[in-house]
Write a structure and sequence with these properties.
The chain is of the alpha+beta class. Among the domains are: 2-112; 247-374, 2-Layer Sandwich (Heat Shock Protein 90). Helix content is 64%, strand content 10%. It has eleven helices and five strands, in the order αααααααααβαββαββ. It has a five-stranded mixed beta sheet with strand order 1-2-3-5-4, with helices on one face. Helix 2 (26-34) runs antiparallel to helix 3 and helix 4 runs antiparallel to helix 5 (93-110). The two termini are 48 Å apart. The relative contact order is 0.05.
């Protein structure tokens, strides 16, 4: 805008030196010469069209001043040339080519003497300069975009490498030790003399629980490694071999808790069909963590589990009484069990609260949507 005002301030006072224009029309004619420059950044093609139209009209409407043989003011010529360069830099190539050809014809047919050839060459050089600047800017943008994509790819690879490292650590630490637990539990009745049937049953229960935990660890390792597989189909095959637990395995979860000595009462109401996989997995993990906390912090206390399948929500309630060592606090070990349950509930669009129960014990309540929010 400042440059346009400067050009206008030059064009108006000097107009009488180039054209015989009535004083009342001088501001208008000067504006036709200078003001199209204001569109050089927003719409240079429109600005050029206005300026070129004025360049056709002004020589026909007004006579030249004595001693001046060019059809336009110097300001008008500067504005036309600047708009040509801007169009070459920013407008579509077809528009840029049309503007270049029209400008060359305009100057070739209006400038005096043999100057048309020189102007044609100069205007062509301006258009080529604008195109070179345009291609330079585009190449730099593409380079910047490619660098951004490369950075994202490096970040993605770093994440995959970290996931692979976690998978290796889980395998080396958890899976290895759980395998030893399974082997020890299965071989104990044969290695130890005089093992009674109750003790043998206890070893079988320990082995079954350890095997289930080992299978879940293997399933999680498959998920962690899935993005390193050659294609999505292979990833799906590995997930299929190690499926995530769902609602149909709640019975096994409850039975395992009872085998571990927990006094557990359960009740399920409603129809579980139609519950999304994400919500089903969240229900399973909340119950799994809640039962583990009850066994850890309220040993020997009775535990009540209620799961209700409503038309829109799934409700989960786990409540345990005070244990033999005192009221249970749910997650006193300093771990992240409750925080993890809260995060899981939020991830599917639900919510979870956990707090000490009146009279001692601990209570966990969760409300989850049947279908995970998009």
């Amino acid at each position: 805008m400042a440059v346009t005002l400067i050009l206008y301030a030059v064009a108006w006072p000097t107009l009488h030196l180039t054209h015989e224009v009535p004083v009342a029309l001088m501001p208008v004619v000067a504006a036709l010469a200078a003001w199209p420059f204001v569109a050089i950044r927003t719409d240079p093609a429109l600005g050029w069209a206005v300026s070129a139209g004025a360049a056709l009209a002004i020589p026909r409407a007004f006579d030249l001043a004595p001693g001046y043989d060019y059809p336009w003011q110097v300001v008008h010529i500067l504005v036309l040339c600047a708009l040509l360069v801007a169009v070459s830099m920013r407008a579509p190539l077809q528009v840029a080519g049309l503007v270049w050809a029209a400008t060359v014809v305009l100057f070739f047919t209006h400038v005096p003497g043999q100057n048309g050839w020189g102007w044609a060459l100069g205007l062509s050089a301006m258009a080529v300069f604008g195109l070179l600047v345009r291609w330079l800017v585009l190449s730099r943008r593409q380079l910047a975009r490619q660098e951004e994509l490369s950075e994202l790819e490096r970040a993605r690879r770093a994440i995959l490498e970290e996931k692979a490292r976690i998978a290796r650590d889980l395998h080396d630490i958890v899976a290895h030790h759980m395998s030893l637990v399974v082997v020890q539990a299965q071989s104990a009745p044969y290695r130890l003399p005089d093992v009674s049937e109750p003790v043998r049953a206890e070893f079988d229960s320990i082995g079954a629980t350890a095997r289930e935990a080992l299978n879940e660890v293997r399933g999680m390792l498959g998920v962690l490694r899935s993005e390193n597989l050659p294609d999505d189909r292979a990833a799906g095959d590995e997930r299929a071999q190690d499926p995530q637990p769902s609602l149909d395995r709640l019975g096994d979860l409850f039975e395992g808790a009872r085998r571990a000595g927990m006094v557990l009462s359960t009740a399920e109401n409603g129809d579980p069909s139609g519950v999304s996989d994400a919500t089903a997995l969240t229900v399973y993990r909340i119950l799994q963590e809640s039962l583990a906390n009850a066994a850890r912090h309220a040993s020997g206390a009775p535990v009540r589990v209620r799961v209700g399948y409503g038309p829109d929500e799934v409700s989960v309630t786990v409540c345990n009484g005070p244990g033999r060592a005192g009221p249970g606090s749910g997650d006193r070990s300093g771990g992240n069990g409750i925080r993890g349950m809260v995060d899981r509930a939020l991830a599917v669009g639900g919510h979870l609260v956990a707090h000490p129960a009146p009279g001692g014990g601990f209570e966990v309540r969760a409300q989850l949507p049947r279908v995970q929010a998009a």
